[in-house]
Amino acid sequence: MPAELRQRLGRWETLTVVLLVATIIAGASSSPDFLTGGNFNSMLSDVTEIALIALPMTYIIITGEIDLSVASVLGLSSALMGSLWNHGWPMELIIPAVLVAGAVAGLVNGLLVTRLGLPSLAVTIGTLTLYRGLAFVILGDQAVADFPENYTNLGFGSFAGTQIPNPMVLFAVLAVIFGFVLHFTSFGRSLYAIGANEEASFFAGLRVKRIKLSLFVLSSMIAALAGVVFAFRFGSARADNGTGLELSVVAVVLLGGVSIFGGRGTLWGVIVAILLLAAIRSALTINDVADEVLTIVTGSLLLLSVLGPSAAARLRELRHGGAEPARPPVESGAGAAH
């Protein structure tokens, strides 16, 4: 077997593909309803918001940072959306206003991290609570559920008569854009460089702080967009929308092979991990497994996503006599820079 093929087969992303196929086979064996069009629609809908937020989260983690406030931004945007609708705003103005509010939330995160030098983990844990609290201040514990039908159809309808949920079409378009930028542009290469060695990147002329600031703004804007999608999909804007979703987002990004230490990972690996999470959730739900078990599975996937790549790297190191083989700066196609 050629060395290059052997290296690709040994990649963590390849293992996630194998796990995805195994999960689909197990799901189909456990229930005849698993491979139906209706279940396919439900399976994809269930991870819509996770998939959207995972795109900018991939960028952030590649640079060695993290954003745990995304689910609270989602809830804040839903609450703001409901409040503005109650005050008679047209939906054509509400959606841009919500996205701007998301950008401001991300700007706060980014300024605290880049200008004050605070760790992103601590900052976004703090704003996780802050933004969720603001959501309850704005809307309280009420639910707003009288949105126009043509908008709610965008949330839970299907695309062009297929079983593909409308929001997943939005995700597909954004995934192509995010993937192209990450793997085929100088900006994408700069993200890998920052994650691999921030100090060297700074002295090489990269505007590290400005790049990181833009990523936090982008992350919260997409989280705000996910909040709009969430409200339309369930036909209800609530302050507690998306509670706990940040763990699932981080889990799929790490499960997709993105290193928690930065500088490594591919977007296609994250997309496979999203599909894997969707398949696992669907297989458990269709077999009437309790919600508590779904939470345990998410936590287990998070642990696997952290321990798995490290164990795989250690095995490669042992196989090559104690030193992991050198990697090129950029992998063609996969685009992972180290």
Structure write-up:
By secondary structure, the protein is mainly alpha-helical. It has one domain (about 35-320): ABC transporter involved in vitamin B12 uptake, BtuC (Orthogonal Bundle), CATH 1.10.3470. About 70% of the residues lie in helices and about 0% in strands. It is built from 15 helices and no strands. The chain has helices spanning about 5-10, 10-30, 35-45, 50-60, 70-85, 90-115, 120-140, 150-155, 165-185, 185-195, 200-205, 210-235, 245-255, 265-285, 290-320. The protein is globular, with a radius of gyration of 20 Å. It starts with a helix and ends in a 19-residue tail after the last helix. Mean pLDDT is about 90; it is low at about 325-338.
Quickly list its features:
mainly alpha, disordered C terminus, ABC transporter involved in vitamin B12 uptake, BtuC, 338 residues, single chain
Number of strands: 0
> Major β-sheet, in short?
none
Secondary-structure element sequence? HHHHHHHHHHHHHHH
The end-to-end span amounts to: 25 Å
> Class, according to the CATH hierarchy?
Mainly Alpha
| Number of DSSP helical runs | 15
At the fold tier of CATH, the topology name is ABC transporter involved in vitamin B12 uptake, BtuC
Which ranges are low-confidence, i.e. pLDDT below 50, for 5 or more consecutive residues? 323-338
Strand content: under 5%
Q: Taking all residues together, what is the mean pLDDT? A: 88
| Classification by helices and strands | mainly alpha
Estimated helix fraction:
over 70%
| Count of distinct structural domains | 1
Based on CA inertia axes, which overall geometry fits? globular
Rg (C-alpha, Å): 20 Å
Q: Which architecture name does CATH use?
A: Orthogonal Bundle
